[in-house]
Amino acid sequence: MASLVTQSEIDVFTGDFQNLFDTFKRPIIVWKEPKKTFTTIENNVYVGYGAESVKTNVSYTPQSGEFQAMIRYTDKQSSENLEPLQLRELAGDCRIKLEKPGRDYIKQGKTEKIVIDGKSFNVQTDEAVKYFFGVRLYVFHLKATR
Question: How far is CA 107 from the centre of its chain?
């Protein structure tokens, strides 16, 4: 079946789309649940024979990753006169659009927060895929933490 768009036109469109992303992308930091490390101090203790139980120390190692994303803050000054359908469009305080490595990092394990412009956000929705002639970007809606 013939295509309405030639391969050279697709190359131009996808190049422009990638340039748009590269022009407006900014760094975000995705914080994951810290990694727990258990270390025991003493293993030669018999519990119940006058000695304290084995002491276990837990250390937490922070885990984070920095990714590039297009960021769009939601403008919510007034929502009194909006229809229910329009209110659904206002889901979240921020929308990020990022590439697959960032999407995979957010989806893997528990994401505690995402820091953008010094503000903390929680992931509110699953990702939506924006597909444009082979270029995929993933969109998440975020809610500001208060």
Answer: 7
The per-residue pLDDT for range 22-32, each reduced to its tens digit, is: 788 899 999 99
Rounded CA separation 94/28 (Å) = 12
6-10, 33-37, 113-117, range with greatest mean pLDDT: 113-117
HSE value, Cβ hemisphere, 13 Å, CA-based, for 36: 4
Q: Are the C-beta atoms of 42 and 54 separated by less than 8 Å?
A: yes
Cβ atoms of 74 and 96 within 8 Å: the answer is no
**SS3 of residue 118 by DSSP:** coil
CB 67, CB 98: distance < 8 Å: yes
Residue 137 CA to residue 36 CA, distance in Å, equals 32
Q: Is the pLDDT of residue 66 over 90?
A: yes
Nearest residue to 137 via CA among 71, 73, 87, 58:
71
Confidence grade of residue 87 (pLDDT, cut at 50, 70, 90): very low
Cα distance between residue 30 and residue 105, in whole Å = 8
φ/ψ (deg, to 5) at 21: -60, -50
